[in-house]
Amino acid sequence: MADSSVMKMTVKTMPASDLAFTNLAYCSPSDLHSFAVPGSTDLFLAIVGEVFVLSFSYPFSLTYDFDRFNISDGSIALNSIQRRHARVSAGDNVYVTRFIPPENFDLTVLTVDLEFVRKGTKNEQIDATLLSTQLKKKFINQVLTVSQKVTFEYHGTNYILTVNRAVIEADENQTNGIERGMIGNDTYFVFEASNASGIKIVNQRESATSKIFKEKEFNLLSLGIGGLGAEFIAIFRRAFTSRLLPRDVVNRLGTKHVKGMLLFGPPGTGKTLMARQIGKMLNGKEPKIVNGPEVLSKYVGETEKNVRDLFADAENDQRTLGDASELHVIIFDEIDAICKSRGSTRDGTGVHDGIVNQLLTKIDGVEALNNVLLIGMTNRKDMLDEALLRPGRLEVHIEISLPDEVGRLQILQIHTKKMKDNSFLSPDVNLQELAARTKNYSGAELEGVVKSGTSYALNRQLSLEDLTKAVDEENIKITMDDFLQALLE
Ligand code: ADP
């Protein structure tokens, strides 16, 4: 990386609340200019140490008033979460690197050297598959850099791993010059150990490059979401952009954060999958998911209380932490169960109307809170009370429809990936053809086809006369016929 893109800066603090998005930091205005891509509205990122701190889609010109953070030149403001991740304290000097990521930033292949912390203590055998899983668990979504050394424990022994080479999906042919990437679920590790180290690596799969996932689309595949790239980007843009900006900028633009969204469309198309992922991306932890029918109680007044309780954590945080409150993402599945249009239920008691009113009151109350994003989901948008869908409430509506052929292929790839990686998928399986034959299948139904096909294959291995007989694992192969059979069900 060219030196001009590296700057030394002093760490300043800032409250977490100004960004729901922990990846964002502020530099002083002049530093920011040196980081921005001139004339571009592109994503730009900076890295402190090995941690992303600036991740920004710049829809506006760079004329921010950063005075309120009092960030002088040569400073970078990090909130407590960022400081913890970057292992820095206020006043520390850090090197900040401007980084424009390749289109696809997930690492596909990572070649690493292994050595003992204490050399040559014993002849150690390392299972590459096990170690990969362990490393992914530990480093998922973290950035690793070439020549970086990390220590880890495997079977009670400490090792040092040095990153040698990284290949990123988008740059399949470019194996030199990539310096860092993020560890994703699809990252493939190639372990190397010199003879002198005494480490023997077993279970290393054939050629790493043959494992490179060819998908070039927005990399949702590694998150297990197929065919919804455009929808994901739309949600991302509406939910994130305003939250990335400093509050005073948002005020000056006269825009407001989106408080609520509605994802609608047929069942099993990935609405919950996406909402959960968005929730995780917004505040780094599993979002709260509630389900309409669960909230609905047969006792008078109880449902209203359940609705109030949903918002209690956010309100509490706001009271006690004020601006420092984190964003609360509330995912409301089957929201139609409690939000049918008022007057539509036939019991004539008006009980239902009370529930809708309670939800509306709470959502309107969120205005002041500013720390809630409600994502509602339904298969029946037509049933929802219209008032719920007005501006300021669930105002962004995104349709999640049945996947097209490309989407179906991606979904099939996702759900057969494990068996393929573990060599259980017969070479005659043609996912492209299956995708072509499954018009009008939802993601959940495609997953069902894979499960059913697998059960045919497993069935062949079971001896019905003797169920205690061990299954011959090596011989399990799921074939095209198994899937075709499953399609007939
Ligand atoms: P919805 O909320 O739209 O009813 P879900 O997100 O609950 O659907 O989907 C149910 C399951 O179906 C998921 O857990 C996943 O295994 C599979 N699935 C559905 N859509 C997709 C998709 N687009 N990509 C990958 N898997 C999917």
UniProtKB/TrEMBL annotation:
Its EC number is 3.6.4.6. One of its GO terms (molecular function) is metal ion binding. Keywords: ATP-binding, Cytoplasm, ER-Golgi transport, Hydrolase, Magnesium, Membrane, Metal-binding, Nucleotide-binding, Protein transport, Transmembrane, Transmembrane helix, Transport. It comes from the Eukaryota. Its cofactor is Mg(2+). The keyword Flavoprotein does not apply. GO terms for biological process: Golgi to plasma membrane protein transport; intra-Golgi vesicle-mediated transport; SNARE complex disassembly. It catalyses: ATP + H2O = ADP + phosphate + H(+). Residues 257-404 form the AAA+ ATPase domain. Its main location: cytoplasm. Binds 1 Mg(2+) ion per subunit. GO terms for cellular component: Golgi stack. It is an enzyme of class 3 (hydrolase). The keyword Thylakoid does not apply. It is found in: Cytoplasm. Belongs to the AAA ATPase family. Required for vesicle-mediated transport. Catalyzes the fusion of transport vesicles within the Golgi cisternae. Is also required for transport from the endoplasmic reticulum to the Golgi stack. Seems to function as a fusion protein required for the delivery of cargo proteins to all compartments of the Golgi stack independent of vesicle origin. This is Vesicle-fusing ATPase.
